[in-house]
Write the structure tokens for this entry.
Amino acid sequence: MDELLNSLVANLPNFLFWIFASVTALCAIAVVVSQNIVRAATWLLFSLGGAAAIFFLLGADFVGATQLLVYVGGTLVLVIFGVMLTAQGPFLSMNASAAEWAISAIVGLLLLSVLVVSIVTTATPAPRGTVEDYAPKQSMGGDAKAPKNLRKPLLPNPDAAEKSPYADVIGLGFVGVGVGPAHNVSGQAHRPVVRMNYLLPFEIVSVHLLVVLIGAAYLARAKRRAPRPQPQAPGLVSASPPPM
Amino acid sequence: VPVFVKEILEAPWFPYATAFLYAGALMGFMLVNAIFSVWLERKVSGRIQDRLGPTRVGGKFGWLQTLADGMKLLVKEDIIADSADHFMFRCGPYIALAGSFMAFVALPLGYGVVARNMNIAVFYMLAVMSTEVFGIILAGYGSGSKWSLFGGMREAAQMVSYEVPMALCVLVPVIVAGTMNLTDIAEKQLWLWDWLVFRDPFTFIAFWTYFTCATASCKRAPFDLAEAESELVAGFHTEYSGFRWLVLFMAEYGSMFAVSAIASLLFLGGWGLGIGIELADPHVLGPYAGNVINVGVMLFKGWFLVFVMMWVRWTLPRLRIDQVMMVCLKYLLPISCVLLIGVSVWRLFVPEIVQDWFRWVLLALCIAFVAWLAKMWFTFASAPPGSAMPGMWRMTSVSGYQGGRTVKTDG
């Protein structure tokens, strides 16, 4: 009994991983199979939520929360536009033709084969240390940056070991500290190691998104011309006020 | 420590058992919170409308009224409309509840009294609470009723807009404290003048802006367009009855408490009394006795802010949907952007002496205002009901009040 319990507990993370992974996969299949657009969006939400749960299970709180925040909002907008822009009756259903099924099956199988081949042929990279190795030794929590007129904590933080360092690591990686590819410029030993800074690429991608946003607003705007002033017949007084 | 206790503590299954215990305790807290908040809502609305509210079930104050309501809802017939989409109709309330419940996992109620002390607790809570909206929209869309659909769509539009200023306002105290860990933020506000709401003009305004956005995000009046009774019958929950309706409202009251608790942790000193002592310190009261008081203070602050939400709900009329959107996009969003820049500029460029003086003046003004409110309240509450104006309290002790004379008007 004890051994059974212990083995169960030892395998619980794996067990949970399989549960969440299968939820994610099955809901992803349901997205494709479902014909009602809002139901498909619901399955998509479950699938993304399962992926977020896997991130939480792995201790990557920040990535999991970002997944929820970004994709739940995204799916929400998808539902609203799916309903508002496509539905003509209640509970719209989409019927795909046989040709569409065939094309999407071919594309899906191709992608799957690419993934499978790359997984099988690529050797597993040797671990280069855990994330904790890259994390700063003290929590970047606030002590370093806190204004001095806020009181210092009296106690060490309760269960500080439980705190996940991932958010710190990601934030530091953005500004080029800690993780990230290091360039030792052409073997010149006296040159300092230049670390990759992710902030600039990130900002450039953000500006791209802004461009896309403005472009979409430009394309979707109402295509109206300013009304040309109508020549009025002499002697007639317009009842309506002149256009502003 | 006895041997068997030690064995249990070191058993490999112990962390999982505590995890289940935490989850059960949080679920129980959500239930008790819903029961208490509904009772409070009925009493508060009664008082504001010059009624008594529930008085009979469970003694003088109607303590057990909500429990009786809950029993009624449990045995009520469960109806699903023919035109409803059963799958969405069924899973909507549970998604809403799950979103609200998950937020409590990262919510510290005392020093170390938290199911999981996350480094990014604020961000996580905002993220999972945005899931709740999806449940509401599924409930609205899946009901197959136009009223519900309108309610759901309004909620979606409202949430997508109000999330932005809310998140920006949360960033203001995060910038000041330098961390997103709610425990760390709260433990930095030991003294009353350390409370972030009094820190500078920007955090002061950020508190009110955050609270407005939080009220809107819990779809409370004056922003309760999703269930506008005067137009939409009951909005997104028109078709719901019995247990699923109960679940929807457990989620709503749960998230009301959650956003209020975030407000108190970020701005109002969290579980501290503002007296400069961490009660859970082993040199003061110890982690057990101290945390009992801490949790009590935290619950008081959370429920007080919930009470303020109710107060606002039964005082202000509901806005129109275009006004709701205008308030967010034209006012709250620019205000929160200015706050975000302003708080950084204040910390970097304003001399420390000015910062300190500003804090003292702000704190003194706030205390004076609260004292004035208390004085007015005592004045009104201690005066016997008069006959000067029906429905009003006699204000004989208020200077300038003209006794029982009625003002003559023409005609």
User: Anything to note?
Assistant: Chain A touches chain B through 54 residues (CB under 8 Å). The mean pLDDT of chain A is 69. DSSP finds eight helices and two strands in chain A.
